Amino acid sequence: MTMKKFAVIGASSGTGLEIVRLLASRGQHVRAISRRPPPASEFIEPFSADVTDGAALTRALDGDFDTVFFTVDIHKRFASKQEVRALMFDGCMNPIRAVRQYAVPPRFVLLSVIGPDQPSWVWFLLNLLKRGMRKNVIDREAALADSGLDYVIARAARLVDAADVIGPLPATVVAPATRRLDMKRTIARSALAEALVSAAQTAAAGSVLDVFAEERGAASGT
């Protein structure tokens, strides 16, 4: 049996780090790509690279990968449109271009946000904090869809830490993308990581999925 190999871009924190830890715990080799990657271990290979540096990303993705996860987000509040564009869109295009050069490109799994194609007051607030965020989310999804790659887009609900969830984590809903962004739906980063790894292995090529925690007492998919 051939061992699968993964790359995670945005591996220093949040969902990206959760994916790295999950894969390593399963004995899967993962290259953790970030400006400040996590330390090396038996299954984690750190690689320091900035997503805005196309040449650095090409070097970081030099390898026989089965799946590349892109989990980068901009955390700086009130960032300029140029800063947001450089990180969220250009930073995603760099690895897309890099893997398209390979004879057999890997599957590309993009972590996105629920409902960029639907109006929501939450998007209005996000665009105030991160100018142009919604447009960049839409643009990079479209660019990936047009890239010719085997891809999965996972649109996540509002992210929370598992430690902040009262009681056991609720079930995770993974469903075709139809939902509007709101503050009610959430997903723990650790649960999201599991859903992304599962989608990388089982989702149909070209899938666009909503990922969120099932509301306690509600039926799945609502």
Write down the secondary-structure element order: EHEEHEHEHHEEEEHE
Structural class: alpha/beta
Reported by name, the CATH topology is Rossmann fold
Beta-strand proportion: 15-25%
Shape: globular
Counting H and I runs of at least 4 residues, what is the number of helices?
Answer: 6
Explain the overall architecture.
With 222 residues, this protein is α/β, with parallel strands linked by helices. It has a single domain, classed as NAD(P)-binding Rossmann-like Domain (Rossmann fold), CATH 3.40.50.720. It contains 6 helices and 10 strands; from the N terminus they run E-H-E-E-H-E-H-E-H-H-E-E-E-E-H-E. The strands form 2 sheets. Strands 3-2-1-4-5-6-10-8 form an 8-stranded mixed sheet, sandwiched between helices. A two-stranded parallel ribbon has the order 7-9. Strand 1 (5-9), helix 1 and strand 2 (29-34) form a beta-alpha-beta unit. The radius of gyration is 17 Å and the shape is globular.
List keywords for this structure.
eight-stranded mixed beta sheet, alpha/beta, Rossmann fold, 10 strands, 23% strand, two-stranded parallel ribbon, 222 residues, 6 helices, 34% helix
Helix-strand blueprint:
Elements: E1 5-9, H1 14-25, E2 29-34, E3 44-48, H2 54-60, E4 67-70, H3 81-100, E5 107-113, H4 121-129, H5 133-145, E6 151-156, E7 158-160, E8 172-176, E9 186-188, H6 189-202, E10 207-213
Parallel strand pairs: 1-2, 1-4, 2-3, 4-5, 5-6, 6-10, 7-9
Antiparallel strand pairs: 8-10
Helix pairs in contact: 1-6, 2-3, 3-5
Short description:
This protein has 222 residues and is an alpha/beta fold. The protein has six helices and ten strands; from the N terminus they run E-H-E-E-H-E-H-E-H-H-E-E-E-E-H-E.
